[in-house]
Description:
With about 170 residues, this protein is of the alpha/beta class. Helix content is about 30%, strand content about 15%. The protein has helices at about 10-15, 50-60, 75-80, 90-95, 110-115, 130-140, 160-170; strands at about 30-35, 60-65, 85-90, 100, 120, 145. Strand 1, helix 2 (about 50-60) and strand 2 form a beta-alpha-beta unit.
Amino acid sequence: MSHTHVFTPFSEEELMPKEEKLEIVKKGKQFSIGIPKETCLNERRTCITPDAVQVLVANGHQIIVESGAGEGSFFTDLQYSESGAKITNDPREAFEQDLVLKINPPTIEEIDYLKPNTYLVSALQINLRDQEYFKRLSEKKINAIAFEFIVDEYKQLSLVRLIGEIAGNIS
């Protein structure tokens, strides 16, 4: 019996069956995320872009954006809506979600809008707040994450730097 050689541009190793990499779909908790309009004078930044909204919505999350929240960063309500967000005129609705994203610390009135056990990601400016402020957060069991203290793998406060760059680019 003779061995017939078949011409192929592939090596024998390349023709061997290999394990296939399949996408792993994680079924995690889906959040409702609130994006309130910043009320601090001269604050023009927003925590989320319409592109980021689109990614979050595609992953099963619900996004509630207060009308006008992106105006200072040149994002329209229409852009957020077309990305899958629900637009609300009621600031309370943005604050009543599982997760609330803000640039500036919430005011006492805004803390009152938060439902118990909400996750809050914003600056907290701990050195500018009194004990009563944090007592209010604690009474409602708010899980507050101060982004000015989030350290990256290089032990840098990269969010603070990034938000500073955004502020510089907007002005």
